[in-house]
Amino acid sequence: MLNIIIIIITFFLITIDYVDSQTELTLPTLPYAYNALEPVLSEYLMRLHHDKHFQMYTNKSNIILKKMFTDTQSDNKLKEIVKQPIEIILTQLEYLPHQYQLSLRYNGGGYFNHKLFFSMLKTPTSTVDENKPIGPLLEAIEKNFGSFDKFKQLFSSASYEFFGSGWIWLYIDAQTKRLILNFTVNQDNPIMYDKNHIILLCIDLWEHAYYPVYENRRNEYIENFWRIINWSFVNQLYIEGQIKRSDL
């Protein structure tokens, strides 16, 4: 009887510790209506992408995080990692037990990437040329790529030529401090390779991001993507990134 009581108390304490301490991801609401991005992205596509795919990455990430936190075979270091925000956890994947690395890389990366992606979109402009960056970000783009048009050409070309499922990124390189264009496969992102990279912009090239509207016309999706970028949001990421860089 005493052993049963001890087991119950131990389970209760573990549960309380988990609720109080473990990072638990929630599905963010969209910062705009589901139909706000039409005709570039339809309401049906947005509900599918956000409510189904993004929710899946959220749910699976939480399952993995819970397993990590309650893993009796691991030391307290793992529990301390799991208490961190997901963007911090993703920079420490190499320190996780092998059985968690791949699944959290995929699902936790999917959560982080989609949270960022949906945040940097807005109601489309009538034409691509009407939507351009502003302020310090525009100056940095012109300095690093020669002109905004040249940057747009390079970003679009990288997206057109990318094969399979993945992402194209613009970020501040942690080492050179320059703006970098690069790609990742699956749900990888730049901070997995250097925690001090500052992500500014990304495009989701998984089929579920465009197929319900564009089917096999991925190039058309990429062309229209320039109409829905929230450059004010991206510019703010750049400004905050510059402040962060000065603190390193």
From TrEMBL:
Residues in Manganese/iron superoxide dismutase C-terminal domain copies: 135-236
EC numbers: 1.15.1.1
Keywords: Manganese, Metal-binding, Oxidoreductase, Signal
GO (cellular component) term, any one: cytoplasm
Family: Belongs to the iron/manganese superoxide dismutase family.
InterPro entries: Mn/Fe_SOD, Mn/Fe_SOD_BS, Mn/Fe_SOD_C, Mn/Fe_SOD_N, Mn/Fe_SOD_N_sf, SOD_C_sf
Signal peptide range in chain numbering: 1-21
Lineage top rank: taxon: Eukaryota
PANTHER family, per the entry: 37S RIBOSOMAL PROTEIN S26, MITOCHONDRIAL (PTHR43595), SMALL RIBOSOMAL SUBUNIT PROTEIN MS42 (PTHR43595:SF2)
Function: Destroys superoxide anion radicals which are normally produced within the cells and which are toxic to biological systems. Destroys radicals which are normally produced within the cells and which are toxic to biological systems.
Catalytic function, reaction form: 2 superoxide + 2 H(+) = H2O2 + O2
Molecular function as annotated in GO: metal ion binding; superoxide dismutase activity
Alphabetized Pfam families for the sequence: Sod_Fe_C, Sod_Fe_N
Residues binding Mn(2+): H49, H114, D204, H208
Protein name: Superoxide dismutase
Domain Manganese/iron superoxide dismutase N-terminal as annotated: residue spans: 26-121
